[in-house]
Amino acid sequence: MGAIAIVQRATKPPAIGARPFASDVSRACRAPHCARLSTVAASSGSTPGDPSTSKGPRPFSKEQRDFLDGAIRVNQAGELAATLIYAAQSPITVKAHPRLRPLMKHMYDQEVGHFDTFNKLLAKHRIRPTALYPVWQVAATALGWGTAMLGREAAMACTEAVETEIGGHYNSQLRVLLEWVREMEARGEDVGDEVKDMVATIRRIRDEELEHLDHAVENDAKLAEGHEILTAVIRGGCRTAIWVSEKV
């Protein structure tokens, strides 16, 4: 627990202060998406003392715990990266395009909220953070600064690419969780508040990330020079970071 607290303090997103930043959001895709809990669903039945039939918390299998551990770990690392991308982009982008200040601040503030949510889940369930924090910190900051230097369209193309991958990532997590819910209900088990809250949290964050995608497209992401190559490279990097962070 102490180690987690240290990581959280060390990786707190940069303060924006009076720096340029963001505003309102729209909507894009909708489809089902994740994270280590301890117990959920109660089994139906009436035989006292028999965990397979008595009501009460039903522990997750090792496979389920491993999935949830990896999901919370990678989500927390991804949201840290998102805050750093916006923190690096915002001063450059808003200096050149002051009208984007409310939008950039809005998106940054939402990412900070997502990061805080997964920090709390990481600590609550005593999950080890990714060992690659320093790598992702440098990479995210460099990506944000580099795309902002290429211009407004490139900065928005970065958001488009990242949020496309993140939206799909959260959808995949939701599909797994919702399949668990269907299986629990089919067995007559109580799903439990933890799983319900997790599904609701992932859906909300997924939707907000997809709203960022909408904003990026509305602000000429697809007009970025070399758009196809730029977004393909960024999306490939995101997929690699997700895969590694789930395991390391």
Task: Present the secondary structure layout.
Blueprint: H1 2-10, E1 39-42, E2 57-59, H2 62-96, H3 101-124, H4 133-149, H5 152-186, H6 193-218, H7 227-247
Antiparallel strand pairs: 1-2
Give structural notes.
With 248 residues, this protein is mostly helical. Helices cover 67% and strands 3% of the residues. It is built from 7 helices and 2 strands; from the N terminus they run H-E-E-H-H-H-H-H-H. The chain has a two-stranded antiparallel sheet with strand order 1-2. 41% of the residues are buried. The N terminus is likely disordered.
Short synopsis of the structure:
This protein has 248 residues and is mainly α. The protein has helices at residues 2-10, 62-96, 101-124, 133-149, 152-186, 193-218, 227-247, and strands at residues 39-42, 57-59.
Describe this protein with a few key phrases.
two-stranded antiparallel ribbon, 2 strands, 7 helices, disordered N terminus, mainly alpha, 248 residues, 3% strand
Low-confidence parts, pLDDT < 50 over ≥5 residues? 1-11, 16-52
| Helical amount | 55-70%
- Taking all residues together, what is the mean pLDDT? 81
**N-to-C SSE string, H for helix and E for strand:** HEEHHHHHH
The backbone outline, from C-alpha atoms, is elongated
User: What distance lies between the first and last C-alpha atoms, to the nearest angstrom?
Assistant: 18 Å
Major sheet description: 2 strands, antiparallel
Strand content: under 5%
Strand arrangement within the widest β-sheet reads 1-2
User: What class do helices, strands and sheet pairing give?
Assistant: mainly alpha
Q: Count the beta strands.
A: 2
Q: What's the tally of helices?
A: 7
